Structure of Arylsulfatase:
Amino acid sequence: MSDDMGYSDLGCYGGEIETPNLDSLAATGVRFTQFYNGARCCPSRASLMTGLYPHQAGIGHMTNPSENFTQHDYHVPGYRGEMNPQTHTLAEVLKTAGYTTLMTGKWHLGMERKEQWPLQRGFDHYYGILDGGANYFRPTYPRGITLENDTVNIEDPNYYTTDAFTDHAIQFIDQSKQQDSKRPFFLYLAYNAPHWPLQAPKEVIDKYRDRYHAGWGKLREERYQRMIQMGLVDDSWPLSKQDIFDWETLSKEKQDEMALRRAIYAAQVDRMDQNIGKLVTYLKKHNLYENTLIVFINDNGACAEGGDLGGGKKENLETKIGFFLSYGKGWANASNTPYREYKHWVHEGGISSPLIAHWPAKIPQKLHGTLIQQYGFLPDIMATFVDISGATYALQKDGKPIPAMAGKSLSSLLEGKNKPVHDQPIFWEHEGNKAVRLGNFKAVMKWQDGKGEQQHWELYNIQQDRTEQHDLAGEMPEQVETLAAAWQQWADSHQVLPWPQMLDSLHANEHRHKSF
C-alpha cells in the first residue's frame, strides 16, 4: 500500500514517474480502473484491515496521534480514534487458514496501548511506524520505529524508511520460510511514501529535477491524453477544471521551488517502485513468485494539505530535517488527473485508487495487461482473501458479535468473469463529505463548513461522466432521493453520526488539551 499517492502517478496509470516494477506487475496481471478507498489514511486502513466500514471499526474520523491520545476519541462507538477490538483483522482471519502474518510500515490504527499494536492484532512480526507519518531519514520518538513491540533507535546515516520497510519484509519472509517452507505467508507492506514530508535520496531526485518546470496544467494535459490512449479514461469525459491558478502566474523563483517539490515527490514514488522490484526479485529467486497474489493499492487520493503551494519551509527541501513538507494543491490536482478533489473528500479524486493484482498461477494469461472496469472498494479485500485462502471469518469474538464483512470477493473478476460484484449500494462518509454508489449512479455531497451554503447532493452517471462535470440532481430528483435515503439508512445502522456533532467533540478535545 502506498500513502497519499494520486490516481495517475504510476506509469501504468498514465503517469510520467518511472515505475517499471509496478508497470511490469500490471502488464502480467490486471489493473482495476474503479477501485475505491476510504478518502483518508486511517479510515482506509481500518477498512482494509477489518473488511468493514471505518465507522464500524471505530475510526469514523481519525486515529489518535502520538502527541494527544484523546484528540480523536469522541466517546461514541464509531469515533474512538483507535481500531475497535471487537473486530477481526486480516492477520487474525488468515491465521485460521495457517498463514504466517507479517507487517512492515505504517500502522496508524491505534498506538496508545500495546494491545492496539500489530502483534496484538494478529501479526507474527512487525517493523515500522505506529503513527501516521514520520521523517523518512530520521524517524524519532514518538514518531519513530518499532520492531515487534519495542522502540528502535535509528543510527544508520543512510537510513530511509522505504528501504528499511522492504528489507525487513524480505527478512521476515525469509525467516518464516526457513522455519516452515510449506507454510503460506501474508505480508502487509504499508509504505509511508509518498506522504509528506517531501524527502528522498538525492540521486533519485536528480532524475526529476528538470522534469516539472512546465507546471501542473501541462502535466494534467499530458496525463489525460495518455490515460485516454491507455483506456483508463473515456475520451467523452472532459478533464476536470483546473482547481488552482495558472502556473505562469508564479515568479521564476517560485516555479523553481514548486518544480523541486514535485521532483522530490516523484522520487519518493520512484524509490518505492525500486523497492517493490527488490521484493519481487526475492520472490522469484526463492520460487515464491508464481503462486503469490500481489495486490498493490493506495490509501486515498492525492494530498492537497499545506495549501495551494504546499507546506513547510523551502529551506528544508533536500535536507534530512523537517516534518510537514508538502507539494500543495496544484500538484495534487495533477496527481489526481482527470478527477475532482483530493484526500478528505469523496468526489472521484478523493476516493479513486490504482489497484494492481498479479498472480501468475491463478490469473488467466488472456487477462494479463487488461483493465477491470467493474468497481470495488477496500472492504472487498477481506472478502477476497477469505475466499481465496479458505480462512474463517467468524461472526463472534470472545463470545460477542462481530459485524459481517461489508465487502464482496473480487475473485470472479480475477478469473475473467466480467460481472459486477456489488448489487447493493456502497457508501462513504468522512468529515461530513458523503457519497453513495449503486450501478452507474453516484450521489455525492461536499461538506460546506461555515460557508453559509446549503448542504446538497450532487448526482453523476459515472459511466458517462466519471470526472463529475455534469450534475444530474436537478434532472433526476427521484434518483437522488432514493440514493440519499439509502445513505441515511446505512449511516443510522453503521455508527455514522452528523459531522457537526463530531466537530463539537473535536473542538472540546482540543480545548481540553490546550488547558493542561
Notes: The CA atoms of residues 395 and 404 lie 6 Å apart. The two ends are 37 Å apart (CA to CA). The chain has a mean pLDDT of 97.
